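Quick log. Single chain, no ligands specified.
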Amino acid sequence: MKSIVIIILIFVSSHLFCQQTIYDTIIHDDLQRSFILYVPDSYAPDIAAPLVFNFHGYTSNALEQMYYGDFRPIADSAGFLLVHPMGTLDGTGNPYWNSNWGGTVDDIGFTEALIDSLAENYNIDPERIYCTGMSNGGFMSYTLACELSNRLAAIASVTGTMNVNQSLSCAPMHPLPVMEIHGTADFVVPYNGNSFMESIPNTLNYWTDFNECNNEPIITPVADIVPGDGCTAEHYRYTGGTDGVEVEHYKVINGGHTWPGSQFLSGNGNTNMDFSASEKIWVFFSQYDINGRIGATKLDDKAVVMNRINIYPNPASHFVDVDWNGNSVKMIRLFDLVGVELKIFYVSGKDEARLFIGNVKSGIYYLMFFDHQNNFIGSQKLIMH
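-> predicted structure:
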């Protein structure tokens, strides 16, 4: 009985230790730099965890970004550490990131120093460090992709882009997966660019060329499940890149300077509610480490992509999103733990599907995936709550 009590106490203390929101600082270049670290419930100190940077936009701050572009529920289930760094003030007194925007603050060095500082206190997987951000935070993510790629596995930008002519000096050290989420009615960072902001098509062209992806994307409409949000979306995938790397783009038709799926309205145009930018970014990140697509094998300096299946959210309640690469999935079957088949889903999409499972009781299940010849491809455990 005593040993059982000790085990319970260890479990409880470990649980309390893990789930934390930590407000902290480091000193870099004689400046005290602040950040907010979210350590999820699912973090286990004995397992190397991915690290996700989430950069705020111009005039915003780390706390606002933690709520506006919220990854915390995803981190809870996926087990990654989530850091929200704080920028410094520009000449007008507004918080910003020096993504080659002027000033003397070294935000690239600060980011690297923060990686090193966190790695001293947490078990971070050095091959699975990712950067994303909103607006100026998206610009910062691209700048890090160009100048700190030796530490990054993938980046994503929401309403950001590259600076005009930044590609001329961009020098990534390895193929780098890139996702861009952008509205065509963005009046802050125009979709078609301006005299100092690169257009989204040009930014995508640079990264597809650098990664040697196919020039013609696979285009899939995003289901318009919230028609009242004033905008729709299309998903672009540029496949076939070196080491299995891809470039992805969510084009939000009539979308504003906003974070899709956010529960907070920004007043900067239409917010698309048909998909969650945070969910899509993590699904994208989770496919890669610093060597390229996880599960890919190299052949003649190109990657052969093995089948990979992602499901989210997991645990789930009413629906689960599924995406895959490799074999073409045509049928998905849901089984309980004793092998009873509960549902069959016939898939018509190319590489993703949304499964509605709201009438399934809480418990542990398995999704089984089959191709058009009914050949078994793989399975994923699904937790319903």
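Residues 4 and 312 are 34 Å apart (CA to CA).
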